[in-house]
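Researcher: Hi, I'm a grad student and pretty new to this. My advisor asked me to get structures for two proteins we've been looking at. I'm not sure of the right format, so I'll just paste the first sequence and hope you can take it from there.
Model: That works fine. Here's the first sequence with its structure tokens right after it:
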Amino acid sequence: MAHQTTPQPSSPASNRSYDTGSPWAAGGTVFAAVLLLVDGVLGVIKGISGIAEDDVYTRVGNYTFKFDVTAWGWIHLILGIILIVVGAGLFKGALWARATGVALAGISVILNFMWLPYTPIWAIVSIAIGLFVIWALCTGSARHDRTV
């Protein structure tokens, strides 16, 4: 007589779905990649402007975080280049890009807060973009991610 086995119920962890059910979260990862690319390109442009001419940006009032505009230019240029690379990695579905994107978006939010006296409106817009990128990368579907 052949030995029959009863199928065992699968554990809840093996049935876990990473899809949040939200269309905002599902499309958010791709949109976050686009935003990282755009924010990176704009960061490069801000950086070049700050490095080339020290009088392009003027500070609005006194502020605790006083850096030379040339120093801010280098900060934005380097961060912009890295954001472009990470945004491209997100399009390829790389898991490292998701984790790095969250970290860099957090750094970008902090730096844009410190950049407020130079371009207040654009800094607030960049902070909002960074927060959306963090949300999208943390809640988006990770099923298609792979290490590259």
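Researcher: Oh nice, that was easy. Here's the second one.
Model: And its structure:
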Amino acid sequence: MTIVLGAIADDFTGATDLANNLVRSGMRCLQVIGVPEGELALDDVDAVVVALKSRSCPAGEAVTESLAAQVWLRAQGARQIFFKYCSTFDSTDAGNIGPVADALLERSGSAQTVMVPAFPINGRTVYQGHLFVGDRLLNDSGMQHHPLNPMHDADLVRVLGRQTPHAVGLAARPVLARGAEATRVHLRSLAEQGVRHAICDTLDEQDLEVIAEAVVDLPLVTGGSGLGQALPAQYRRRGWLAEVAEPGRLAPATGSALVLSGSCSRATLGQVDHFLERYSLEHPRGFALDPLELAEGDAHLEAALAFARERLADGGPVLVYASADPERVKAAQAALGVERAGELVEQALGRLASTLVAEGVGRLVVAGGESSGAVVSTLGIDMLRIGDQIDPGVPWTQAPLAGREAPLSLALKSGNFGGRDFFTRAFEVLP
């Protein structure tokens, strides 16, 4: 059996975000970690999302991995390829969004693709080519402090223009307001002018529906998960996708509950604060990881493990976090170097996950794309079945693990996603 949609995501949480929206729109979805070796059994799957760790790596490496994913997905019969990046478009001026999109577009044989990062339900909108997070321009939203990909420019036409030698254009809101056919005509006109990449204004769900109808026949589309939510309806209109009952059904969850957080986004910092506030100082259930202490040896990590084991034995969720405000992050990076500080946190979270899952944790939430990648890699997870949504952009998933009778229930949360009570509420909604 062939699949309808094949997606390539540039990080783990972004992949899960997209897969979540595909499931919510009625597609049975499988997320794979890295490019599989050979074919998979896809008899009950409509979409496959390949999760890469290519957002912040060298552009050439990102291109190579993304092209390999495209080849594999085409071999599975995917009718359309979707290059998924973050709804905040975070990428350096050297890439990787532009170089990867250029390479995928050339391999697809198409003259043009669209850039649709917006996710209105999560406050990410685009107007006159400028990306907003809530009511703030991207460069004033907190993303200017991102430790790996700080964003200092909200004009996406300008941002992408620095990443690609090809022309970048705009499908502005007045065009979308005239409907899908007018949008198709406008995109065709831009292509005739040599525009290979079209940034699409998007203010609401209706705009996403218009764009999805206009681009459903393109071999390659790119964007955030909002577009992924709108595409399945167009697949059904073409008879490519059947109605499916409970596309996100998972097995009952088992085991103790753990949260690991490496994200330093504003949303995650608020979620850490809420978790710590919920549990009184008399019975704290949160342990703060410090990169400077991690650099001194294993004692700090062993203390985190001892804390987690004691609290897990009491029942209820436990939080271990390296999330910190921008000043503390910069101080650690100044002392250790940006790459080393990040590696220490990722390695610590990975070791915590592998040790505690082996000891009985069966419900695990991880906050942050790089952190999620480290945890998934350390656990040896290569496949996730996508379940129902916790908050917009974040579903529960399940992964089979060797030595475990029941699958591990896992939620991989992008740093910017989720309500303030996410770390506590996630376990309350898990079947």
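Researcher: Is there anything I should tell my advisor about the second?
Model: You could mention this: The chain has a mean pLDDT of 92.
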